[in-house]
Amino acid sequence: QEQPQMRNAQFFDSCKNLKIYFVVNILCPSKKTANFYWCIHRLNLKTNVNGFDKALITQTNTKVGSIIVYDGERKRTYNVTPQVFNSFPKGHPFSNKRWDTCAVIGNGGIIANSSCGKRINSADFVIRCNLPPLTNGYEKDVGTKTNLVTANPTIFLNKYGALTGRRRPLMEKLSSYGSSLLLLPAFSFGMNTAVCMRALYTLQDFQAAIQPVFFNPDYLYKLSLFWRSQGLKEGRLSTGVIMTSLALELCDNVHLYGFWPFGVHPYKLKNLTNHYYDDMKPNTNFHSMPSEFNTLLQLHKQGVLRLHLGDCE
Ligand code: CTP
User: Fold this and answer.
1) ipTM surpasses 0.85
2) For ligand 1, is residue 114 a contact (CB within 6 Å)?
3) Residue positions annotated with a catalytic role
4) From ligand 1's centre to the CA of 163, what distance in Å?
5) Residue located nearest, by CA, to atom 5 of ligand 1
6) CA gap 178, 143 in Å, rounded
7) Interval 141-167: pLDDT, tens
8) Could you give the CA distance from residue 119 to residue 158 in angstroms, rounded to a whole number?
9) Ligand 1 atom having least distance to the Cα of 272
10) I need a labelling partner for 311 at 20 to 30 A (CA). Which of 7, 92, 167, 206 fits?
11) What pLDDT does residue 93 have?
12) Could you tell me which residues come within 8 angstroms of residue 67 by beta carbon, excluding any fewer than 6 positions away?
């Protein structure tokens, strides 16, 4: 399952092209971990999407008066008013630094009973998707550490009354993610904006520990074009692939857990639920998770990231 990483020294020895050598040297300061594919992939992401600086909307990359174009509805736009601008974070969202190890946690049923919680908690930066549950016994398998968590607005609409009523249930739910970043796709579709704004204002007004930030739709759009050019042509990118792409720019070593969009466990050969916490089926009109998984598997084989499918203990 795990592929040995090609040593950087070996790569440099075999690298005849000085230009590539120069670029790789800048992008791959960690000689311990880097390999050819890893460097090229990182270079591709940096030049095509630059998630490190552009994935989130900040006061630096989005000024008052700018016009935001929605990534899911290209004809829809949003004018940044001074009031909205003031709700954007001022500094660099990732404190301008890179981490050694990132863990990206998909919500697949494969992670149930994996005992991977401790290993996940030991990563420097942990990314989770769609406000997944971390308590009631799930800790052992998925851990609790969270540095960044995404929220799909349908969760606010379906489980929290569109945030038009009491806000306490949401505040209680979000307390399990500590002071992590809460990533909201406010400008992907028109229906997302008002409810994401309500979430942001609620958290700011109640001085919640969690820090709400908006996905930059320009980043999401460029990322979808990037993956298209790499052969991922079907549907809209899933949150898991978006977060994996971001992690590849933020961290030297990217580990994926809970990614397995299939009904049977690869080793234990038993039936799996779609999520580790429920069996709500994926929307196949929207995403193509099996093709995405194939792409992730290729990256695993190339040593760009590590997919964990087995148990940890
Ligand atoms: N995932 C997976 N295998 C599963 C379920 C989920 O690989 N059986 C990954 C996908 O990349 C997915 C992520 O885990 O994006 C989060 O899962 P989920 O919350 O189920 O995502 P969805 O709601 O299906 O879709 P979206 O990506 O739009 O958030």
Assistant:
1) yes
2) no
3) 287
4) 23
5) 108
6) 13
7) 999 999 999 999 999 999 999 999 999
8) 33
9) 8
10) 7
11) 85
12) 77, 78, 79, 80
- C-alpha to C-alpha distances, 22 to 13, 50, 165, 212, 252, nearest whole angstrom: 13, 19, 56, 38, 18
Q: Which of 86, 68, 87 is nearest to 217 (CA)?
A: 68
Instruction: Specify the residue with its C-alpha closest to ligand 1, atom 3.
Output: 261
Residue reference for tokens 């406010």: 186
Residue 130, ligand 1, Cβ within 6 A: yes
**Considering only CA atoms, which of 138, 148, 94, 146 is closest in space to residue 121?**
146
Specify the pTM.
Answer: 0.91
Q: State the Cα–Cα distance between residues 212 and 204, nearest whole angstrom.
A: 8
- In the numeric block, which tokens belong to residue 230? 């790499």
Which atom in ligand 1 lies closest to the alpha carbon of residue 262?
A: 8
Q: Which of 132, 130, 155 is CA-nearest to residue 144?
A: 132
Radius of gyration of the chain (CA): 19
* E-assigned strand segments in 99-199: 99-105, 125-128, 148-150, 181-184
pLDDT tens across 194-251, in order?
A: 999 999 999 999 999 999 999 999 999 999 999 999 999 878 999 999 999 999 999 9
